[in-house]
Amino acid sequence: MVTKFIADEKPQKVEVLDTTLRDGAQAKGVSFDLQAKIRITLALDEIGVHFIEAGWPGSNPKDEEYFKEIRKYDLRNSELVAFTSTRRKNMKASQDPILQKVLDADTKWITVFGKSWDLHVTDVLKTTLEENLNMIYDTIKYLKENGRNVIFDAEHFFDGFKRNKEYALKVLKTAEEAGADRIVLADTNGGSLPHEVYNVVMEVKQHVKKPLGLHMHNDSGCAVANTLMGVLAGASHVHVTVNGIGERTGNADLCVVVPNLELKMGIEALKNREGLKMLKSLSSLVYELAGIPPNPYQPYVGDNAFAHKAGVHVDAVLKNPVAYEHVPPESVGNARKVAVSELSGAANLVSWARKELGIMVDKREPAVRRALRRIKELENKGYSFDNATASALLILLEEMGLRGKTFEVKDWRVISEGKDLSGAKSWSVVKLGNGEEYLEAGEGIGPVEAIDKALRKALTKVAPEASSVKLIDYRVHLPKASKHTESDVRVEITFSDGKEFWTTTAVSRNIIEASLKALVEGIEYYLIKRKLMALRGMMVP
Ligand SMILES: [Zn+2]
Description:
41% of the residues lie in helices and 19% in strands. By secondary structure, the protein is α/β, with parallel strands linked by helices. The radius of gyration is 29 Å and the shape is elongated. Helix 3 links the parallel strand 2 (51-55) and strand 3. The N and C termini lie far apart (61 Å). It folds into three domains: 9-290, TIM Barrel (Alpha-Beta Barrel); 307-399, H-NS DNA Binding Protein, CATH 4.10.430.20; 408-535, Double Stranded RNA Binding Domain. It binds zinc ion (ZN). Pathway: Amino-acid biosynthesis; L-isoleucine biosynthesis; 2-oxobutanoate from pyruvate: step 1/3. InterPro entries: 2-isopropylmalate_synth_dimer, AIPM/Hcit_synth_CS, Aldolase_TIM, Citramal_synthase, LeuA/HCS_post-cat, LeuA_allosteric_dom_sf, PYR_CT. Belongs to the alpha-IPM synthase/homocitrate synthase family. It comes from Ignicoccus pacificus DSM 13166.
């Protein structure tokens, strides 16, 4: 009976307020500059969140500048929201300079946060319970009189409700009477559990008529679950941040809340119907601009979210994806990954060959076994093929007799030089051969750039079609800890021809040699793939 009851309370639609730029920016080590804030705003608007809470005018000049700058852009889906506290104690709202700055930010919507836990009023704010209610009432009333819509954020609501329910509810009613358009229950300390949130929301909605919202922090690891339970109890407005970034352990993660609402609960949460498919790229953008390494284990958008490693899984997922995937990876803009590894069987390699190169090969063929043996030997030397599909496939192609060298590096040399520590320059020469020999030079800031340029110049003679290959990403890693010898480095390079992406890897004590090897393999892979595709095209009637 409980499940039926839950289903009855659930709204059809939920409004999403993203606060990455305000609450998320309070995360340790995160600071977005103006350009980053604009880029994130546009990405959020594109996926179609209802509200973007973007800053606290009056708290810092950067946020004021942002609200000026963002006016130049036309947002298609989202409303901008400025954030502020209630007026200061013992002062008129119209005289509070911070509220003036908030109005100057010129947004239609404003979030006002106020205290709803009596202990915070008396011990932190150091004022009377009555004056706190006045501060909330006056602030909201004043902003409403100035033509703004107000989201009231009841700080520490769940803790307040547990300790002094009467007062916590009085705070909400005061905000409602002053004209607040949304009443948000915040779990500011993040300590609540899902069943508590459900019960509290069920009770609160007996007292409050305005749409209820939730603002959940993740200190008990339940921010997402708490948000969903609050929605099941009838809340229709949720606060989230991209990747869950925020103070301490962060906020409810947009990248998990939104797909759960839309894909699992049948609740519309984005204004753009195609928005969900941009989730992975939104997540990556925010990691990049926040300077935080992405979490590969993040649900839906993490690099491992649809990665299959163990051989049995791979076999099954190729037969029917539903066997090991809870939703299709494309639904959130992610992709299935099949990793070749020590754990896996030949099924992984065979599936790669089929997916990437269109080659049908049986996993019992001796060439597959030989290729796997070589891959495992390389893994023991510190290689990792989890991302570098192209390098693993080149080994398979070689064992199948399909690699046939288009060119080969005969000789290379790099010189790096600088006068002080800020003006380095590098020069390189590369000699290629494919019957004839070509020697070319290149210049760059770093040695890898110099050698890439020399290599490409020589390649224009040997394989001009390689000119459309671009270097997208270059990373240097230490090989897996247990396996690397002191000075080995592992290089990983990602390439694209504008349509597809592929990654190669190489390990060496010499970082330049490793880079050159991965560069050469990346171009070789592209040339072979083109040849195979053309061949298949010819064979198709
Ligand atoms: Zn918060």
